[in-house]
Amino acid sequence: MRKICVVTGTRAEYGLLYWLMKEIENSNDLKLQIIVTGSHLSREFGLTFNEIEKDFKINKKIKILSSSDSPVEISKSMGIALASFSKAYQKLKPDLVVVLGDRFEIFSAVSAATVSRLPIAHLHGGETTEGAFDESFRHSITKMSHLHFTAHEQYSNRVIQLGENPKTVFNVGSIGVEGISKLNLLSRESFEESINFSLSKKNLLITFHPVTLENSSALIQFNSLISVLDELIDTHLIFTKSNADTGGRIINKIIDKYVENNPHKSVVFSSLGQLRYISALQFMDGVIGNSSSGLIEAPTFKIGTINIGDRQKGRLKADSVIDCDSSIEGINNAVKKLYSSSFIKKLKSVKSPYNGNDVAKNIVNIIKSFSLNNILKKSFFDLNIPKKIK
């Protein structure tokens, strides 16, 4: 029986991994191990490990975050994570480590697994986010991984372009899109009761993360967004807080202050959880911010997404996504487009670029059957690229 160790560090990542973890847990050939780290263990970010413990047994909790999100403290967190994960792997002795995405704590977890000589399976590789240093982490994780489960053929091709053997790269689709079809979504009344907040004639869901490759931009950019949102009429706002990146705490303080001053039309959550977040999309006029969920999950509900700035630049996008810069004018024009009759009409025929059929099951079948013998030794897969003529 193979021991499969799944690492999760954020609420969003866990929401995506949930169905894969269930599939692993229900397999007779696999044993699930779970390591929880990052913002899951932070009171400031909602102590979301409590939600995980309702669903699974957690094998190890690795606390790494400090009370600051400065570059120095983030680097310190990465160092703590590297040492702590090495100790955890030594104790758990997994046969395969499974990770998703591109965050700094996942980079540390994968680095420790590499030194510990453990095979690694990576979900959502090959994607690009040009406005965040997550881009570098993601491609680095790809190079340290041995099995690759991508969300689109274009992303599979990019993983191969990075030198990975095509035999180890599997275009399985988006596990987040698959999860939508498996959830028993809340009714409008049940959703309102669950958040203790009434929806209005118009409703928007806002998640905005720092653009980590831009200096001191979080405060300016988010204040521009707040200025536009505050002018909207008959509109209720549901905020989910920013993640633990550098600048995230500044954004969260602005949200808290705004909601405190405007409780009649706004509400904030450190984490809605998977069920409430996906349920919310049914009742929204649109999603605003720069979260990947606006590009991957939101189009399934045929609602618009206002994607601000460069954080998600490079990702595949449905026609429901409105790109804009972070200026007041840019965001204001995007909101006008979101509510325009022509755009609303176009939403009816929107198709998501991400497939979500049997993703978790397909991943588990590959994990069960793929030989791990000598998988640690990788040869760089060269593409047949003509040499540049001098």
What does this structure look like?
The chain has 390 residues and is of the alpha/beta class. It folds into two domains: 2-173 and 357-369, Rossmann fold (3-Layer(aba) Sandwich), CATH 3.40.50; 186-347, Glycogen Phosphorylase B (Rossmann fold, 3-Layer(aba) Sandwich), CATH 3.40.50. Helices cover 41% and strands 16% of the residues. It is built from 15 helices and 13 strands. It has helices spanning 11-25, 49-55, 71-92, 104-115, 134-144, 153-161, 175-182, 188-195, 218-230, 248-261, 273-281, 293-296, 328-338, 341-347, 359-369, and strands at residues 2-8, 30-37, 60-62, 96-100, 120-123, 147-150, 169-171, 202-207, 235-240, 266-269, 286-289, 304-308, 321-324. The chain has a seven-stranded parallel beta sheet with strand order 3-2-1-4-5-6-7, sandwiched between helices. Strands 10-9-8-11-12-13 form a six-stranded parallel beta sheet. Helix 1 (11-25) crosses helix 15 and helix 9 (218-230) runs parallel beside helix 10 (248-261). The longest helix has 22 residues, at 71-92. The chain is globular and about 60 Å long.
Radius of gyration (CA) equals 21 Å
Level-2 CATH architecture of the largest domain: 3-Layer(aba) Sandwich
The average pLDDT score comes to: 92
**Distance between the amino and carboxyl termini:** 55 Å
Low-confidence stretches: none
The CATH class of the largest domain is identified as Alpha Beta
Assembly annotation: single chain
- Record field, number of beta strands: 13
SS class? alpha/beta
- The largest sheet has its strands arranged as 3-2-1-4-5-6-7
Number of helices: 15
The SSE string, one letter per element, is EHEHEHEHEHEHEHHEHEHEHEHEEHHH
The rough form would be described as globular
Q: What is the CATH superfamily classification of the largest domain?
A: Glycogen Phosphorylase B
Question: What is the helix fraction of residues, given as a range?
Answer: 40-55%
Q: Characterize the largest beta sheet: strand count, sense, and whether it forms a barrel.
A: 7 strands, parallel
